[in-house]
Design brief:
alpha/beta; TIM Barrel; 3 domains; eight-stranded parallel sheet; three-stranded mixed sheet
C-alpha cells in the first residue's frame, strides 16, 4: 500500500466509535494498511478522506469475490509470507463436465459435501465447482449448472462460447459465478455478458503479453474483477508465469497484472498423484484458484493442510479453542489430561490418546497458541491460570474422580496446582507424548 497505518489514521475521523469492529481508529488504520480489512467498514469517513484513501486502501493484487462474496481470491500484498502474511487461501475447485452422466455428477457433488475435515477449529474442504462445457450444447450445459446451483457451492462456468455461458448464467440462480474464459477472440462478447450479470471473469492468454492485451480490453470496458491465466501447461513454465505476474503487480505496480491467477493441474499432468504435486507447487507460488480434475481424501487432505499452513499468519501461532475435548466416548471414570492450546501440542496429544484406545477427557487451556514449556515460561500455563480454568470448565460434573494428569515437563507446578484445586490429586504424566498410550493403559482411575 502507498500509505502507512499512521498516514491512514490521520485521514480517518478518529472517533473510536468501534462500529468498524475495531477498538480504535488506530487499530482499524493498521489493519487497513496491512490489507486485512476494507475502508467501507468505517461508517464516518468523510468524502474527502474516502477519496484520499480509496486508492491506497486497494491491495496491488485485487481481491476478487465469487458467488455471494464468501469466496475470495487475491488481495495479496507481499511476495513472501514472512514479510507480512498471505491473505486469501486459494479456493480449490472440483471439475464437473457436461459429458458426465447423472451418477458421475451426483458422486462428485457428494465429494464436495463429504470430503471435509476439522482441523484447529476450522472446517477444511473444497469450495468451488468448475462446470465445463465440452460439446457446445447450451441446453445440456444449463441443465448441469442448474443441478450444481442447487447444491449451494460456489461455481465457475467454463466455456469459450458466450452463448453457452449465457445459458448457464440463466440457470445459476443469480449466484454470480466466475466466467472462464475470455480470450483475444471473444473478449468483447464475454466481457459484455459479465458486465450485464456482474460476474468476475477468467482471462486467458497465450503468454503474458497476449494476456495483458485481453486484460486491457476488458478493463477498458469497465470490468474490474478478473482472474488471470497466462496459458502455460508445463509446471516449470507455469511457475515462471505465476512469479512474473506476482512480481509485476507487487514490485512493478503494473495494474494490468494486478489480479489473482488460476491454475489447472489436470492439464499439466495425467497421473493423479502428479496432479497433486503440481497443485501443491502452485498453491505455494502463487495460484489464486486451483482447479482439480478429480480427487479423493488422500489427495485433497494434504493440499488443504499445505494451504492452511501457508496462509496462517506467521506472527500468530495456530491455536485450538479452549475447552473440554472428549476422545473415544469417555465415561465418569475416564482419565483427565490437560495441555496447552498450541495446535501441534493438541493434535499430538489427542492422537496419542486415540492410539491408546483408552477413552479420555483432554482439557485444552488457552495459552495464546504457545506450547507447554513456552507457555509456562510466559506465565500462561501455571497453577493460578490452570486452577480457575479446571474449576469453571465443567469437568468436575463429568467425572467421579478428582485426578488431573499434567504434562511431565510441567511437573514443577504440581504442588501449586494442588493448592489451587483443593480435593484434586495432580498426577504427573509422561514428558513425551509418545509414552501416553502406555501411561493410560496402566491408569488405575
Amino acid at each position: 500500500m502507498a500509505l502507512t497505518g499512521i498516514e491512514i489514521f490521520k485521514k480517518l475521523p478518529r472517533t473510536n466509535c468501534k462500529e468498524c469492529g475495531f477498538p480504535t481508529c488506530l487499530a482499524f488504520a493498521m489493519s487497513l494498511a496491512q490489507g486485512k480489512t476494507e475502508l467501507a467498514k468505517c461508517p464516518h469517513v468523510s468524502a474527502e478522506g474516502k477519496a484520499a484513501l480509496s486508492a491506497a486502501a486497494e491491495p496491488p493484487i485485487r481481491t476478487v469475490s465469487i458467488g455471494g462474496g464468501a469466496l475470495k481470491a487475491g488481495g495479496e500484498t507481499v511476495m513472501f509470507r514472512h514479510e507480512k502474511t498471505f491473505v486469501n487461501p486459494p479456493p480449490l475447485a472440483l471439475l464437473i463436465t457436461d459429458a458426465m452422466d447423472e451418477a458421475q455428477v451426483a458422486a462428485r457433488l457428494r465429494k464436495m459435501e463429504e470430503l471435509r475435515y476439522d482441523r484447529v477449529g476450522l472446517t477444511l474442504g473444497p469450495e468451488l465447482v468448475a462446470v465445463q462445457e465440452t460439446g457446445g450444447d447450451a441446453g445440456r450445459f444449463a441443465s448441469l449448472v442448474g443441478k450444481v446451483a442447487v447444491s449451494g457451492h460456489g461455481m465457475m462456468l467454463m466455456s469459450s462460447r458466450p452463448e453457452v455461458l449465457a445459458a448457464g448464467l440463466k440457470a445459476s440462480a443469480g449466484q454470480r459465478p466466475l466466467l472462464y474464459a475470455a480470450d483475444k477472440n471473444n473478449a468483447e462478447q464475454l466481457g459484455a455478458l459479465a458486465k450485464e450479470h456482474g460476474c468476475p471473469v477468467g482471462v486467458r492468454g497465450n503468454g503474458i503479453e497476449e494476456l495483458i492485451g485481453v486484460v486491457e480490453k476488458l478493463t477498458g470496458m469497465g470490468l474490474k474483477d478478473l482472474v488471470l491465466d497466462a496459458g502455460a501447461r508445463k509446471l516449470g513454465a507455469a511457475l515462471r508465469e505465476q512469479i512474473a505476474i506476482r512480481r509485476a503487480a507487487l514490485s512493478g505496480k503494473f495494474k494490468a497484472l494486478g489480479f489473482p491467477t488460476i491454475a489447472f493441474p489436470g492439464e499439466m499432468a495425467d497421473d493423479p498423484l502428479q496432479q497433486v504435486v503440481v497443485a501443491a507447487a502452485l498453491i505455494a507460488k502463487y495460484a489464486g484458484i486451483v482447479v482439480l480434475p478429480d480427487f479423493d481424501g488422500a489427495m485433497l487432505f494434504p493440499l488443504l493442510l499445505e494451504r492452511m499452513n501457508i496462509f496462517t499468519d506467521p506472527q500468530r501461532p495456530m491455536a485450538t479453542a479452549e475447552g473440554i475435548y472428549e476422545i473415544g466416548g469417555p465415561g465418569e471414570s475416564a482419565p483427565v489430561l490437560i495441555t496447552s492450546n498450541f495446535s501441534l501440542s493438541y493434535f499430538i496429544v489427542s492422537g496419542e490418546i486415540e492410539t491408546s484406545r483408552m477413552p479420555a477427557y483432554l482439557l485444552v487451556k488457552d495459552t495464546e497458541g504457545l506450547s507447554v514449556l513456552t507457555a509456562w515460561a510466559a506465565g500462561k500455563f501455571v497453577a493460578d491460570e490452570i486452577g480457575p480454568f479446571v474449576q469453571k470448565c465443567g469437568i468436575a460434573d463429568k467425572v467421579k474422580h478428582r485426578k488431573l494428569i499434567i504434562p511431565g515437563y510441567a511437573a514443577q507446578i504440581s504442588g501449586e496446582l494442588e493448592d489451587e484445586l483443593p480435593g484434586w490429586e495432580i498426577v504427573i504424566g509422561p514428558r513425551e507424548a509418545a509414552y501416553i498410550p502406555a501411561f493410560l493403559k496402566a491408569w488405575k482411575g
